């Protein structure tokens, strides 16, 4: 072996060669914009921000290979080439058990394969059934994979069809849908179908901070609390729990990872009570990375190998493909061919033949809202960029750098003395617990986390997202649901877009704001209090903090 020359800093694995300049904006200008947009963060002009960490959804920097792939996109209305490529990319990563089994049919497109027989055999006419992505005629006979342009649209298609089926079978009945942590749009979709969302995780563990702020191994704080899950199912009755969700990584619970052991357990409990398990998988690749780095038995496995095992435990999944660095647009809804979701939501004749296939109902909804199954609301070029992005998310070095950036920010806050930083960092973001940040002095009706977020925009031009009392609608919940709310703000870090300089600026700004936290205003809602997912559209107004 040749001599090694180790350093105490990691070697970089990418560089940037497209640059976007930022304007110089004053506090007065930002104040004017805040007033003009009713203090709604989503309405603040991004062109006036210095660092935008509102979301990592669709905001990623694409790689050169993704940009190049746009030209391979085929905008045909029926069976564009990207349709085959995307479904097979999913099969490669979620079903084939690692790189060694990848077919990578995208490479046939990249190399302009003109052998029509080969393309027919390996791309156009391949038959697949029994998994999450039927292919060929099987996908027409039993549709089970739906390209949909983003995660919430996939959720809404799923929820609407589930609601219709349940309402027909049990008119007027209210259902409970538990999760380790429902995302805000998932909760919104569940509430709009008249069901009750529940979030079952371990809050005490979540707020724990280790000595010195650093864990040796990630403790998987995103896990579902299995005991609470069984208790809930037995107390409301399994017939009143039509679905169990699991968010991977657990975005509303501070982006925390979920262990393979926990996924296995959730699957066991769900199947014990005959309830289909649905993954909400915006950040499956980061979760696979955390499993590799922290869970016994996975150190030698690749992200793709781990992803295959993860997805073997679900009966269906919804996916926002705008995270993890996949692409700027994309989403997916799929269920296992002839699996538990299909069995529970299809109707059968007495002789066991299918009367109504739930996949056909989902496809009708997909077609009526998002276009046919070849593209589902996406352009052909976006589909290609997404396929490339999915493969890139399996790259260890990329994930390693991404998670390291999150750690840098979280530990930066911690070392600066800011209270309430959730540790370890999530895979895509850093969260601060606002109850602790404000020393427990602000009530749940003050929306001080939103005050914090708006003050960060006003003073420093940094936009983050409040995912606590305001966005999660604390005041509209039952006491048991209120106990499940994390009163946090989230600093999202998108793929390869922010530099260490950005993070240092954010650390300095939050430190300064923390030291002056008494002067952060509270907020009240002046319009849109009861609107579904109100944080996207409500109007707010600051009022001074007068500590009681
Ligand atoms: C972003 C996200 C969604 C919604 O997806 P969009 O693509 O933004 O519509 C759903 N669930 C989770 C966990 C998410 O992070």
User: How many individual helices?
Assistant: 21
Largest sheet: 5 strands, mixed
User: What average pLDDT do the residues reach?
Assistant: 96
Widest β-sheet, arrangement of strands:
2-8-7-6-5
Helix content: 25-40%
Radius of gyration: 23 Å
- The counted number of beta strands is 16
Shape: globular
> Any low-confidence stretches, pLDDT <50, length ≥5?
none
User: Alpha-carbon distance between the termini?
Assistant: 68 Å
Percent of residues in β-strands: 5-15%
The helix-and-strand class reads alpha/beta
Q: Are any ligands bound, and if so which?
A: pyridoxal-5'-phosphate
Keywords: Pyridoxal phosphate
Protein name: Tryptophanase
Family: Belongs to the beta-eliminating lyase family.
Cofactor: pyridoxal 5'-phosphate
Q: What does the model show?
A:
- With 548 residues, this protein is an alpha/beta fold.
- Helix content is 40%, strand content 11%.
- The protein contains 21 helices and 16 strands.
- The protein has helices at 27-36, 64-69, 81-95, 106-110, 116-124, 137-141, 151-169, 184-192, 203-207, 226-236, 260-272, 284-294, 303-312, 340-345, 358-370, 380-392, 396-415, 434-437, 448-460, 479-482, 500-515, and strands at residues 51-52, 145-147, 176-179, 196-199, 244-247, 277-280, 316-320, 331-335, 347-348, 354-356, 429-433, 462-463, 465-466, 488-492, 522-527, 539-543.
- The strands form six sheets. The chain has a five-stranded mixed sheet with strand order 2-8-7-6-5. A three-stranded antiparallel sheet has the order 11-14-13.
- The protein is globular, with a radius of gyration of 23 Å.
- The termini are far apart.
- The mean pLDDT is 96.
- Residues 57, 150-152, 183, 185-186, 247, 251, 280, 282, 320, 322-323, 331 line the site of pyridoxal-5'-phosphate (PLP).
């Amino acid at each position: 072996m040749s001599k090694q020359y180790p350093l105490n800093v990691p070697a970089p694995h990418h560089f940037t060669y497209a640059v976007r300049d930022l304007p110089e904006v004053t506090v007065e200008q930002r104040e004017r914009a805040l007033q003009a947009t009713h203090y709604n963060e989503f309405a603040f002009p991004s062109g006036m921000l210095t660092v935008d960490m509102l979301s990592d959804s669709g905001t990623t920097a694409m790689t050169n290979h993704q940009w190049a792939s746009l030209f391979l996109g085929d905008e045909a209305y029926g069976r564009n080439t990207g349709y085959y490529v995307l479904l097979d990319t999913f099969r490669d990563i979620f079903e084939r058990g690692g790189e060694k089994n990848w077919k990578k049919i995208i490479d046939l497109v990249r190399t302009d394969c003109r052998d029509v027989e080969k393309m027919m055999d390996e791309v156009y006419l391949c038959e697949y059934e029994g998994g999450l992505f039927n292919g060929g005629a099987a996908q027409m006979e039993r549709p089970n994979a739906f390209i949909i342009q983003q995660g919430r649209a996939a959720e809404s298609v799923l929820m609407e069809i589930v609601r219709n089926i349940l309402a027909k079978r049990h008119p007027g009945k209210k259902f409970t849908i538990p999760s380790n942590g429902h995302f805000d749009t998932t909760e919104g979709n569940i509430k709009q179908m008249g069901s009750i969302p529940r979030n079952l995780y371990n809050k005490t563990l979540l707020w724990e901070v280790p000595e010195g702020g650093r864990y040796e191994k990630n403790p998987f704080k995103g896990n579902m609390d299995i005991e609470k899950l069984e208790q809930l199912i037995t107390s409301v009755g399994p017939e009143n729990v039509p679905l169990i969700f699991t968010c991977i990584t657990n975005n509303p619970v501070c982006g925390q990872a979920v262990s393979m052991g926990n996924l296995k357990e959730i699957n066991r409990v769900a199947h014990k009570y005959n309830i289909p398990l649905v993954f909400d998988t915006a950040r499956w690749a980061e979760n696979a990375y955390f499993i590799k780095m922290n869970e016994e038995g996975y150190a030698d496995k690749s992200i793709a190998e781990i992803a295959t095992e993860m997805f073997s435990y679900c009966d269906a999944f919804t996916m926002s493909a705008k995270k993890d660095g996949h692409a700027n647009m994309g989403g997916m809804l799929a269920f296992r061919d002839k699996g538990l979701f299909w069995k529970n939501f299809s109707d059968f004749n007495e002789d066991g033949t299918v009367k109504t296939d739930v996949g056909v109902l989902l496809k009708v909804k997909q077609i009526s809202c998002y276009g046919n199954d070849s593209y589902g609301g996406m352009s052909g070029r976006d589909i290609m960029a997404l396929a490339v992005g999915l493969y890139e998310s399996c790259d260890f070095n990329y994930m390693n750098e991404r998670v390291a950036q999150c750690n840098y920010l979280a530990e930066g806050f911690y070392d600066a003395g800011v209270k309430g930083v959730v540790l370890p960092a999530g895979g895509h973001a850093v969260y601060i617990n606002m109850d602790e940040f404000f020393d427990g002095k602000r009530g749940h009706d003050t929306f001080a986390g939103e005050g914090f977020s708006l003050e960060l925009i006003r003073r420093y031009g940094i936009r983050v997202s409040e995912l606590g009392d305001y966005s999660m609608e604390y005041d509209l919940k039952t006491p048991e649901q209120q106990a499940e709310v994390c009163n946090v703000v989230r600093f999202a870090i998108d793929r390869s877009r922010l530099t260490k300089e950005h993070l240092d600026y954010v650390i300095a700004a939050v430190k300064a704001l923390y030291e002056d936290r008494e002067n952060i205003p509270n907020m009240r809602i002046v319009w849109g209090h009861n609107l579904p997912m109100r944080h996207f559209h409500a109007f707010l107004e600051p009022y001074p903090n007068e500590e009681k």
